[in-house]
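FORM 7B: Structural annotation worksheet

SECTION A. Query
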Amino acid sequence: LRQYNAGGFPFAVLRLGNVFGPKENSMRFWLLHLWIRAHLALRLPLHLDEDLVDTPISMTYTPDIAQAVVRVIEKSKEEVCCAEQVHGEAFNLASEEAPNQRKLYNYIAEPMGLNFVETADMPHNKSIVLYPELVRGPLSNAKALEVLGWAPTDLQKAIRSVARFYDRVMLDETRFKWEREIMYSKCKTMLGEDGPRFVSWIRGYYDERRKTELYDELDDEDEDEIVAAHSSAPQPVTRCRAPACGRTSEARRPDGSVVTRRA
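SECTION B. Predicted structure
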């Protein structure tokens, strides 16, 4: 700040909420996704921290961060008016909605087809809570909306896209092997004596899904499609890259019928 005030290098500050999205390296959302996936089968209810149960959780989706960075650079370079609006300024980046713990769990469960999430109220010193990490919210994003023209993704839509990403990561054994092993290690540490049976169930669940589902190896284009997916878009059923398949893909319409496309 002193350098900037003395005529030095211009800067802008982007303040983030609780970050989630594809490849987010704390793996918190991935862990939470798997816990919700397994909790009913294993009778491992999600924890509600008694000190945080009603705390609004400001969530920040990783592609929305990238969007904000581009907007700041455009203004800083005067590609869009005006540089003085961003130089030395700070902007909060968070989704419009700030759910509490229970609502966030339900949002994550919805793409899995779960009608409810079993929870247990826990004292703060005994609770296992992955969100919120930042509790001084909710963040106001009004300045980013007005000055940057920033447009955060609808929270439920973003969660559905991330759920698809992590399911595909779990199914595709050709990539992210190292990250999966780290995630399994974190699961065991997080859940203590329940960790080994949790990891065993998760491995078995996705092993069974691989027997009945065809999937692509994830590439950069696929990941871009996942991030940009609209809730109204057809949901993928199977895709095949074998030479004999002729690069076809299938998608299910909202009415349940299946259409086949050829690339």
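SECTION C. Observations
The chain is about 40% helix and 15% strand. The two ends are 52 Å apart (CA to CA).

SECTION D. Sign-off
Analyst initials: ____
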